[in-house]
Amino acid sequence: MELDTDPTKLKAKPIIKPKVEPCDDDDELPPPPPPPASGSGEDWEATTPLAAGNPFFTALIAKSHLHPKFQMWIPPRFQHRLAEPEARTAAVLHSGGKSWATSYCGHLKMKKLDAGWSEFAVDNRLLVGDACVFELVAMGAAGGLEFQVQILRGGLPAEVVTSKGLTSDQPILIVD
Fold first, then answer.
1. Is the pLDDT at 98 greater than 70, yes or no?
2. Whole-model pTM?
3. Is a pLDDT exceeding 80 seen at residue 64?
4. What is the CA radius of gyration of the chain?
5. Residue 58's beta-bridge partner residues?
6. Taken in order 43, 124, 104, 108, is the CA torsion positive or negative?
7. Pairing of strands 88-95, 145-152
8. How far is Cα 99 from Cα 102, in angstroms, rounded to an integer?
9. Domain residue spans of the chain
10. Res 172 pLDDT > 70
11. What CATH number does domain 52-163 carry, 2.40.330.10, 3.90.640.10, 3.30.70.60, 3.30.70.330?
């Protein structure tokens, strides 16, 4: 069978023009969380105690956390623990004896730490593959938040991934 390649006999295909619109900050979604371990039906990350027993979440650092926007998305499973401000709220990150002022964007559909996160990431030389544990240590009446941040170079240790600290007999202890 021979194909007819005469240009006069080919049907013209309509040109599809893409619709280009400006992006809203809320449109960019964070990378999906890792799948839960089989048999774990509860939200171990938000309920497992650290040494102080405060709620926490973990983040495996990806390119989207570092470049170009420097944004740290708050996992949806942790957002219910935070006040629901209608606008930006002050947040402070503590790590290694230093503090960084950031802003918590609670008014967006996907909550995040925005302004100031870049200074924290640069000052602490965060790299793709590092992990951070954000422990909520204080929540002010006006909505201000304070997190103690533990930085784990090269990702989460195997003990955290396997045991997950499902019980208070096996808590996750991170020594600064």
1. yes
2. 0.61
3. yes
4. 22
5. 133
6. negative
7. parallel
8. 10
9. 52-163
10. no
11. 2.40.330.10
